[in-house]
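General statements about sequence and structure are easier to judge against a single worked case. No coordinates are needed to read the tokens, only the vocabulary itself. The sequence in question and its structure tokens are set out directly beneath this paragraph.
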Amino acid sequence: MTKLTNRELLRPADDFAHRHIGPRDTDLPKMLKTVGYDSLDALTDAAVPNVIRSAGELNLPEPLTEVETIADLRALANQNKVFRSFIGQGFYDTVTPAVI
């Protein structure tokens, strides 16, 4: 069994980006070598045409923690309204072929 270091033990539990966004720095050289490029910029230059690139910085809000994101998603979901679906009601004398 491997003993964890203090740094590993005290690492923030809310580390959403680390778990879900992109490769680790140690993975990049191997990935780039596999696809035949020296850098992410070179790969991007080869893969993304200039005509669809954005020249400026994106205007994005500050990132949220995982806890904040879940709270925002719950608040958004709580705005949903449940309605009864009447799709198919009132239709009759309709024959659906057996193959369907």
In short: Residues 25-50 form one domain.
